């Protein structure tokens, strides 16, 4: 198969991701699949995910897709979204500690309780849900045409805390400053949901389906 | 700068048409849901909520088709509510392209549903919808009860306690809070209700019911402490655009997502 494979490991709703990709993919095929073979044949891989970290890792392992992801990140243009970013790190605090895929060195942490908004003093809600500004910290083909500090749609309670600052692609502010996108070689992964982020999100997906994996 | 407050147009859908009732009765046709969804998307709506108010269950498939068509054209979060009774119903809506489902009556009738759904699909896609009505006497401190079946049944359940319970252990990720006293009145949100619930829970609260002008939306945020504000009729009948609503929010010092800065040339 040539085209885009969206990895389906039973965690969350992949329809939105597939529909947004189809909208920008032109003639490229978009396939939602859990087949290792189909994933390895695809030109590029999208790795979404929602829900709890433990369930995500367990399902990946049960379907044998943990190895497929590890293989895919070596060579092909690869886009992780939301939990598809978080499980790329070494470990998460969620569910009393969950081992990740260890592709990016670092950990996944929970937003601190009792965070307050600086101006109003109001309690900050968790999950961090809604449109927040994404501050690009590097130039990258996937940021092409997207204005600095554009808003993207987020929904999450945990955030990544990478060890290697050279792998940070963007940050955002919610009580704390946190990393909301990471990039290394052919891999790009975002905490926000480009498929739900209107023009800015579609621009990022459009950049991804045309990206050759070089930076 | 940080998280923007959200403006959410709501589309009440009856047998495939957008309608608007006053206090849950007196229905008035407002147009085609797909056309209206696209218009709001272009105006800068941050999310859309579709509530299926179709009375007969054999027409429910109409809503699936509406959601499918909207989801193929509109790339912002979509919430669908009305008639969601089971995990199977939720799965059908998510597969049609919804990002979240709103559960109201079924959360009361089937106490395990929210927890099961949150475990299965993630808290982020389970919205607890509460229809609240003030039940205290004039000389008493304010108190609200949960009503179901489109406001016809009184449950005896305290709204603030219910909100806490369902967002805590049960795992609902957001609350859609409608004041039945204000819905359709154009008198503004029940700000005391909104604030009481928003300050009692850790998850985001969407204020709903009663918006008659743009300052009501801003009041929902500044005085009601809502994380998002929902309105229907002020947008449906083209009194105001979503862009105008955002402009007023900005003038009132509220952070919003501005459309014109999203892309550079």
Q: What would a concise description of this structure say?
A:
The complex is a heterodimer of chains A (215) and B (265). Chain A is of the alpha/beta class and 215 residues long.
Return the CATH topology of chain A: Rossmann fold
Chains forming the largest contact: A-B, 46 and 39 residues
| Averaged pLDDT of chain B | 91
Radius of gyration of chain B: 17 Å
Counting helices, strands and paired strands, the structural category of chain A is alpha/beta
Give the proportion of residues in helices of chain B: 25-40%
What is the number of helical segments of chain A per DSSP (H or I, 4+ residues)?
6
How many domains of chain A?
1
- Largest sheet descriptor of chain A: 8 strands, mixed
Q: In terms of per-residue confidence, which ranges of chain B show pLDDT below 50 for 5 or more consecutive residues?
A: none
Task: Detail the topology: elements first, then pairings.
The complex is a heterodimer of chains A (215) and B (265).
Chain A: E1 4-7, H1 15-24, E2 30-33, H2 36-41, E3 44-47, H3 53-62, H4 65-75, E4 78-81, H5 83-86, E5 89-92, E6 98-99, E7 104-110, E8 128-133, E9 135-136, E10 151-156, E11 158-162, E12 168-174, E13 176-184, E14 187-190, H6 198-209
Helix pairs in contact in A: 1-6
Chain B: E1 6-14, E2 17-22, E3 25-31, H1 33-43, E4 48-52, H2 61-71, E5 78-81, H3 87-96, E6 100-103, H4 105-109, H5 113-121, E7 126-134, E8 144-148, E9 153-158, H6 159-167, E10 174-179, H7 191-200, E11 205-208, H8 214-222, E12 228-231, H9 233-236, H10 242-251
Parallel strand pairs in B: 1-4, 1-12, 4-5, 5-6, 6-7, 7-10, 10-11, 11-12
Antiparallel strand pairs in B: 1-2, 2-3, 7-8, 8-9
Helix pairs in contact in B: 1-2, 8-10
């Amino acid at each position: 198969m040539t085209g885009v494979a969206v990895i389906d490991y039973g965690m969350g709703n992949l329809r939105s991701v597939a529909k947004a990709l189809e909208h920008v993919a032109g003639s490229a095929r978009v396939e939602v699949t859990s087949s290792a073979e189909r994933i390895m044949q695809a030109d590029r891989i999208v790795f979404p995910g929602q829900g709890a970290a433990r369930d995500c890792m367990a399902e990946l392992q049960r379907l044998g897709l943990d190895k497929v992801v590890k293989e895919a990140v070596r060579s092909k243009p690869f886009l992780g979204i939301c939990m598809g970013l978080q499980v790329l790190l070494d470990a998460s605090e969620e569910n009393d500690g969950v081992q990740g895929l260890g592709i990016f060195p670092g950990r996944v942490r929970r937003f601190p309780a009792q965070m307050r908004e600086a101006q109003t003093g109001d309690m900050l809600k968790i999950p961090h849900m809604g449109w927040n500004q994404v501050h690009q910290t590097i130039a990258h083909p996937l940021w092409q045409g997207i204005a600095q500090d554009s808003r993207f749609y987020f929904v999450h309670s945990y955030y990544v805390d990478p060890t290697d600052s050279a792998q940070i692609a963007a940050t955002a502010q919610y009580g704390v400053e946190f990393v909301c996108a990471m990039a290394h070689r052919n891999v790009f992964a975002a905490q926000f949901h480009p498929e739900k982020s209107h023009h800015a999100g579609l621009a990022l997906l459009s950049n991804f389906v045309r990206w050759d994996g070089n930076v | 700068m940080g998280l923007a407050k959200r403006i959410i147009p709501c589309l009440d859908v009856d047998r495939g048409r957008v309608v608007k009732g006053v206090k849950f009765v007196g229905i008035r046709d407002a147009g085609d849901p797909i056309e209206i969804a696209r218009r709001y998307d272009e105006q800068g709506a941050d999310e859309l909520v579709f509530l299926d108010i179709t009375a007969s269950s054999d027409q429910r498939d109409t809503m699936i088709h509406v959601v499918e068509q909207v989801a193929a054209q509109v790339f912002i979060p979509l919430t669908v509510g009305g008639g969601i009774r089971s995990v199977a119903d939720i799965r059908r809506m998510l597969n049609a392209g919804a990002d979240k489902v709103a559960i109201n009556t079924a959360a009361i009738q089937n106490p395990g549903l929210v927890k099961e759904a949150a475990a299965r699909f993630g808290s982020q896609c389970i919205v607890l919808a509460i229809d609240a009505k003030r039940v205290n006497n004039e000389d008493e401190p304010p108190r609200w009860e949960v009503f179901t079946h489109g406001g016809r049944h009184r449950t005896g359940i305290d709204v603030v306690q219910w909100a806490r319970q369902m967002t805590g252990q049960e795992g609902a990720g957001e609350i859609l809070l409608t004041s039945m006293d204000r819905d359709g009145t154009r008198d503004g949100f029940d700000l005391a209700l909104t604030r009481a619930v928003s300050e009692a829970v850790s998850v985001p609260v969407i204020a709903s019911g009663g918006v008659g002008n743009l300052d009501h939306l801003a009041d929902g945020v500044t005085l009601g402490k809502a994380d998002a504000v929902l309105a229907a009729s002020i947008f449906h009948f083209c009194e105001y655009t979503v862009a105008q609503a955002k402009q007023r929010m900005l003038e009132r010092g509220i952070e919003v997502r501005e459309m014109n800065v999203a892309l550079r040339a």
